Description:
The structure holds 2 protein chains of 2 kinds. Chain A is an all-alpha fold. Chain A has a single domain, classed as MetI-like (MetI-like fold), CATH 1.10.3720.10. Chain A is 64% helix and 2% strand. Chain A has a two-stranded antiparallel sheet. In chain A, α3 runs parallel beside α7 (190-214) and α5 packs across α7. Chain A is globular and about 95 Å long. The two termini of chain A are 47 Å apart. By secondary structure, chain B is of the alpha/beta class. Chain B has helices spanning 59-65, 96-102, 117-127, 134-144, 148-151, 164-176, 194-207, 220-226, 253-258, 263-269; strands spanning 2-4, 7-11, 19-30, 33-44, 48-52, 76-84, 87-88, 103-106, 182-186, 212-216, 229-235, 245-252. Chain B has an 8-stranded mixed β-sheet, sandwiched between helices. Chain B has a 4-stranded antiparallel β-sheet with strand order 4-3-6-7, covered by helices on one side. The interface between A and B is medium-sized, with 22 and 28 residues.
Amino acid sequence: MEAEKIISIDTKHYKENISRRNLAEKIFNVILLISVLFGLLMLTVLIIDIAVGGIAWVRPELFENYHSRKPENAGMKSAIAGSIIVILLTGLFSFPVGVGAAIYLEEYAPKNRLTDFINLNINNLAGVPSIVYGMLGLVVFGRMFGLFSKDSWFVNLFNIPIESGATGGWKFFLFDIPWLEIHLPFGRSMVAGALTMSLLILPIVIIASREAIRAVPPSIREGGYALGTTKWHVIGTLVLPIAFPGILTGMILSLSRAIGETAPLIIMGAFTYVPFLPKTVWDQFTVIPIQIYNWITLPQPEYRVHLAAAGILVLLVILFLMNGIAIYLRKKFEIKW
Amino acid sequence: MNLTSNIQSYSINFHDDATIINANQLNIYYSGKLTVENFNLQVPKNKITALIGPSGCGKSSVIRSFNRMNDIIPGFSLEGKIIYKGKNIYSSREDPVRIRRQIGMVFQKPNPFPKSIYENVAFGARVNKYQGNLDELVESSLIQAALWDEVKDKLKESAYALSGGQQQRLCIARAIAVSPDILLMDEPASALDPVATLKIEELMWELKDKYTIVVVTHNMQQASRVSDYTAFMSLDREKIEDRIGVLVEFDETTKLFTNPKLKETEDYITGRFG
């Protein structure tokens, strides 16, 4: 260093201006607080508005009855049952596939252009509008490209016994086990709806699971390998148990998103009026958001305002319950370092 | 003294029966870049061999090659042979999973699993289907690691309730629970305070009757206190820009520290370099 470049600094050259910097700090704090309050305020307004219109209509009939032409008798029993079963099925389908994909991408996939491309597109898929998934689900699961319709080349080629009627198609028992009934195509059944919902939430499940897996420290993996352990064993006994709370949280939060989805199921042909409870997963169904949507489109204010609001209240309670379960499970399985 | 590729180096030779690992002309690459060149070392059985040298000279790369831990690093490749029990551990017939059971490793930062103390020690035994009494194995391993008295009443508690030094001894217990021949220790005490460090060093002395120990250390005092033999590694001075690690001198620890054969070693141990 050149000696003549070193200057002696007079403290008078500093204009510290502490009070002004503190003021800026306070202003910034207030701005941040306002942003938080804005979100909270909107949620409160929404809940109060809905509760005022609907709380009186959350009554036993809402859970005991089906939709009725008389508002005082109308309920949403089939929609509640439909929502719960579809969400359970969605979880059942998307958990193994999503976690499996996350493990592969995080632990096994080689780093090359193909995996970069896959990573990019998983993020893109998370942003695809849900109605697009509805159309995909309709073609792939609902109709199966028309392969099982009467007189299709496929049916003629293999001489498949096709039933006629609205819910027609090919029905059989897988491996001849009575409770493993399969309907092809899936049609307007809950299976079709749940598979479409699974497609919808898979990108989120995969992204959340990958983040949970990536958060497991590499030193834990090394410790496992150093004891003479195979890769799968390290993943199964060390990585996954540590990542599990994070995976579970991501899973339940994406299911909370799925339970509020309407568009893909409308495209899939879920009915608005289902006056029976589903007996099997192959039955037709409706879900709470569709029921709400249906009521809002009716002209009478009892449906349009009060019953719709009551339906939203039920949906919100289910949502809060699911998020509560997510928090509980995360605490329960959390690993203390 | 021998001259290979213009590098002056000195090393002693053992009778084959007295050694357990023979590293033979190792070249280590990461993503095609040469990191350690022409490394030869005979590790004597039931002794403590220390690897010392300045940062970035490839000590860790070498020790992690001895049990194929580097295999999990993408881009790693190795030329040459590492002979263990008459077999090249890098031959395609050898399974790294079995080699790592026989050649254990303790890491720089204590890395117990987020499980109980008991389960940490039992982990490797369970994986490798240990047929004996697991409780006895856990107790014996913890006694050997000089940790039993401190933890015998809290075996079911989380390993993270232990102090750093205790965690590191737990990791040693975990490593010896799968009855390895060799313990590789990659700077096992560098994250610990002086008292815990001393305990680890005493432990290493006790363990060398049963196990061969190779220890990487930054700390020359530690190497001189604890090891029987010392290998000094450094960067190749001819190609200093390429940062290629080479073995400079390998000798009995007392000789290397009191009467080094090469000036480069002397400069390092007297603190003129590194």
